Amino acid sequence: MVNVQTEILIRRRRDDVADYAANPDNAPGAVRILAAGGAVHGAND
Predict the structure, then answer these.
(1) Which residue, of 6, 19, 27, 32, has the fewest CB within 10 Å?
(2) Model confidence, pTM
(3) Model confidence band, residue 38 (pLDDT cutoffs 50, 70, 90)
């Protein structure tokens, strides 16, 4: 058995992250960005 734990720091307000995550139109872009090790940017950049 292998146990894996990861942690990520998202430097956005919790409400901004929730709004982004709740919008299904953002899913493909978020997956691509996170897979590349980048950050998800929002309207407050």
Answers:
(1) 6
(2) 0.46
(3) low
Q: How far apart are CA 6 and CA 26, in angstroms?
A: 22
For 2-30, write each residue's pLDDT tens digit: 998 888 888 889 998 889 888 888 777 76
Question: 16, 42 in Cβ contact below 8 A?
Answer: yes
Our measurement of the distance from residue 4's CA atom to the centroid of its chain's CA atoms, rounded to an integer in Å, reads: 19
Residue carrying the six token digits 């998202």: 10
Residue 8 CB burial class (10 angstroms; 0-12, 13-18, ≥19) = exposed
Provide DSSP, 1-45.
Answer: -----------S-HHHHHHHHH-GGGHHHHHHHHHTT-----TT-
